[in-house]
Amino acid sequence: MAPILKLKNLTRYFAGLAAVKDVSFDIEPGGLVGLIGPNGAGKTTLLSLIAGSLKPTSGKIEFEGENLAGAKSFRAVRAGIARTHQIPKPFRTMTVHENVEVGLRFGRHEKAAGTAKKAEEFLEMVGIAKLAQRPAFLLSVGDLKRLELARALAARPTLLLCDEICSGLTETESGLILRLLCDIRGAGTTILYVEHNLRAIMSVCDPVIVMNYGEKLAEGTPAAVQNDPSVIEAYIGKKATI
Amino acid sequence: MGQEAPVGVKEGADSGGSSVSRFVSVVVPLLLLASLAALPLASPSPNIIRLLFVTLTLVTASVGWNLIGGFAGQISFGFAVFYGLGAYTTALSINGGVPPLIAFLLGAIVAAVASLLIGLPTFRLKGPYFAIATIGVSEAVRVVMMNVPFTGGASGYRIIDKTRFVQSHHYYTALVLAVLAVGISILVRRSKLGLALIAIREDQDAASDLGVNPFVAKLLVHALAAALAGAAGGVYARYALFIDPDGVFAFRNGVAILLMPIIGGVGTIWGPVIGAFVYGLIHEEVVANFPQAHLLIFGSLLILIILFEPGGVVGLFKKFMRSLRARSSVGSHS
């Protein structure tokens, strides 16, 4: 099957610093791909480049055969890419229901997505249906993370980009979210999942991509990646030789 | 701490407060409209009709400003540009023999086109930069109009209206336009565009990440807002019969158009209307009684509102209703 997303030599500089440098990889449709790396590895920047929140300095982003490099994020959404934010960005004065309504009404076209789900159904999926009429500024961090997910799902993406959706959640809460991600993938949505927490990602993701200092370090099954010496070095450090 | 109280309020709202707020937001405006419509029949003094006429044109401009400033959160100091362009376009059209209604429409169109010219470069700016840019544009347009020869430059422009002057006709024109403005405001707020505007106000990047095109949404609503301000300027010009750049393009008009929604309640449907009535009815008295200090008074008022009640009159009213409800729900539980 042709890859749903192809990155070719994707690079982004902030002033002189390369936050993402020459990153290339493909994502197969239907995958739940993990993207890990130490702090400052460029994971979120890479995600923002794919989502159109940032413009790449150079390189190609091919999504379902269409080049999206440099396209604004609303165009990426209409093409079928939606993202969540590491730090939730709710529309504070809107109700939870209205927040989801934005994704629903401005996301990928219903006909293209082939679903006509309502806002309530997305809230039900992430488990915050009973908060629907509450203004978003009253939500706890955990519920805001769920709202991020519900809103992004309401945009009916074929590729969902999740940025550390479990950070700040309790063990049980992240367990529920991870199961939900597996269900979403089961329903046919491809997921690229950025996570700091290795255990979370190793348990659910199939291919895992490791980044460090803006570059791709390794790619493969969780087991293979875990035993890769360069990955161990990036996370733990080199063996001292005296 | 702040999280506890509003939750309790929400429960109270479900248990019977909604009929009161429906009464306030539907019946009160209709009563007000009926009394405004009936007022000329009671033949009050021409000065009262004049004062209300001016107030109604201010309602239109204020409601217009609220579309972009209140719903979309893009604070503009430059609405005198649209008001003035509407006034001048209408004036030139009437002198050219165009019927008044068409002349108002032309004023609205010219203002809307100008809003696109201003919006195309400035809506690429975020945060306070848009506000600052509108100040510059406003002053630039005023200075240009001072020097344009075919409208008389700084000495102003006289309108020769061949129709017979009937004050109540002008009054009803302003009333119909104000009702139209409020109608547009309600429709926009309930529409898909309205949802996009609130999303942009709350977090433009997040809105874009969900498929909203912020640039287009802002351009659209800015044009709509400018058209309303332009039509208001046109209706005023036909009544005044004489306009000059220091009158209609004055920076203080831009500030007044922004002050009214803030007094009443920015981003709400009725706030700009209430604010325009408060400002329109007291502003002349304040200027007459404190000719040297009226700007100081309005400036202080602005600071007080922003410090203590950013929701304006509507915000105060909501707080009052909440405390009433909280009290009554405590009563019913005991």
Briefly summarize what is shown.
The complex is a heterodimer of chains A (242) and B (334). With 242 residues, chain A is an alpha/beta fold.
Helix content range of chain B? over 70%
Rounded to the nearest angstrom, the distance between the terminal CA atoms of chain A is 50 Å
Largest interface: A-B, 32 and 21 residues
Strand order of the largest sheet of chain A: 6-7-8-3-9-10
What is the level 1 CATH name of the domain at 5-89 and 156-235 in chain A? Alpha Beta
Task: Tell me the CATH superfamily of the domain at 5-89 and 156-235 in chain A.
Answer: P-loop containing nucleotide triphosphate hydrolases
Q: Determine Rg of chain B (CA atoms, Å).
A: 21 Å
If you had to describe this structure to a student in words, what would you say it looks like?
- Chain A has helices at 43-51, 73-79, 96-106, 110-113, 119-126, 141-154, 171-186, 198-204, 222-226, 229-235; strands spanning 5-14, 17-27, 32-36, 58-63, 66-67, 81-83, 159-163, 190-194, 208-212, 215-220.
- Chain A has 242 residues and is an alpha/beta fold.
- In chain A, the strands form two sheets. Chain A has a six-stranded mixed β-sheet with strand order 6-7-8-3-9-10, sandwiched between helices. Chain A has a four-stranded antiparallel β-sheet with strand order 2-1-4-5, with helices on one face.
- In chain A, helix 3 (96-106) crosses helix 5, helix 3 (96-106) runs parallel beside helix 6 (141-154) and helix 5 packs across helix 6 (141-154).
- The longest helix of chain A has 16 residues, at 171-186.
- With 334 residues, chain B is an all-alpha fold.
- Chain B has helices spanning 4-38, 46-71, 79-95, 100-122, 128-147, 167-190, 192-202, 204-208, 214-240, 245-248, 251-264, 271-289, 294-308, 312-333; strands at residues 157-158, 242-243.
- Chain B starts with a helix and ends with a helix.
- Residues 1-16 of chain B have low confidence and may be disordered.
- Classes of the chains: A alpha/beta (242), B mainly alpha (334).
